[in-house]
Amino acid sequence: MTSSHHPYLGRLAVSVLLLTSACTRVVDIEVEEGPRLLVVDARLEHGEAVQRVRLTTTDAFSSDTAPPRATGAVVELSDELGSNYLLTEQTPGEYRTPDLVPRLGGIYTLRIRYEGEQYEAVAPLVAGPPIDSLYFEYVEKGIAQGDSGFRAVIDYSDPAGVENWYLWELYVNGVRRVSIDPGNRFRVISSDEFYDGGRVVGYQPFDEEVVEPGDLVTLRQVAIPEQAFRYWFTLFEQTAPNGGPFSTPPSSLRGNVANLTNPEHRALGYFLAGQVSQRTATVPER
Questions:
Q1: Rounded to whole angstroms, how far apart are CA atoms 121 and 81?
Q2: Spatial distance between the Cα atoms of 135 and 247, rounded to a whole number of angstroms
Q3: Model pTM greater than 0.90?
């Protein structure tokens, strides 16, 4: 495989061997890479001491390395009361501030200046309930359950009369576990449409993730706004199609980060603000 060194256009040479009794043909197919886009991973989390924004860019289709980090950007956060916070680039592509203490109900704006273009996103910081408890349940191997082993289980109470949307994240020994699976859109994110005000007991957001005795497990529960819920729901549909006739066809997924300088040169990713509750526990011996 080869690719052009042009930053906005690459070519992928695909060798296709056509085996016949007489000869072997090599067919080169040119694949346009498209423009290099800014990728935004921005979280404003109530309950965290340091706020972080991670910036990368898209890479060549044929690349097998980590996405290039977007360095040298100017990153700012502000709220509707007029407070402004400039984030410092602590490591390449990661911008942080310890000065911003997120406020529940606040409306926050993210502004990014990168390579001569201005990007902007707005997000409300929504409140959510705490995780009441984290514990572990041993599940025997089965068709629906997957491999035998412990699963992380939580209990929480959904507030009555308030629309809530949730995103859960699992860390095992400090490493985040992310499963790409069609079922994720029904478990790793959730709407309280059918259990508003209810007590949720024995919930396993990561029911296919086996954890071992002695593992240090952290489960984070992030309250998210409805727009973010719909974004993540669509993202899971796009990344884990079920292969059936009614699968969601691939399409361009747009986040909430707009390019104010050149709207056609859009950014990828999402700016999220929400309240976080997390619990940490060690997996017991069986």
A1: 16
A2: 35
A3: no
Domain boundary among 102, 124, 146: 124
Greatest Cα pair distance, the chain, in angstroms, is: 76
Q: Is 230 helix (H, G, I), strand (E, B) or coil?
A: helix
Cα–Cα distance for residue pair 72/103, rounded to 1 Å: 28
> Angle 234-266-108 (CA atoms, 0-180°, nearest 5)?
75
pLDDT in tens, 170-203: 999 999 998 666 666 678 999 999 999 999 999 9
The pLDDT of residue 92? 98
Per the listing, tokens 């993540």 go with 232
Strands 149-157 and 199-203, sheet pairing = antiparallel
Phi, psi of 234 (to 5 degrees): -65, -40
Closest CA relative to residue 153, chosen from 204, 116, 101, 103: 204
Output the domain CATH number for residue 58. Answer: 2.60.40
For residues 5 and 55, membership in a common domain is answered with no
Helices (H), the chain: 184-187, 226-239
Structure confidence at residue 8 as a pLDDT band (50, 70, 90):
very low
User: In the prediction, which pLDDT does 80 show?
Assistant: 97
Q: Are residues 179 and 67 in the same domain?
A: no
d(CA 188, CA 206): 7
Domain range for 163 is 131-248+274-282
The residue type of 127 is: A
Query: pLDDT tens for residues 97-106?
Result: 999 999 999 9
- What's the total number of domains in the chain? 3
Span 214-222, mean pLDDT? Answer: 98
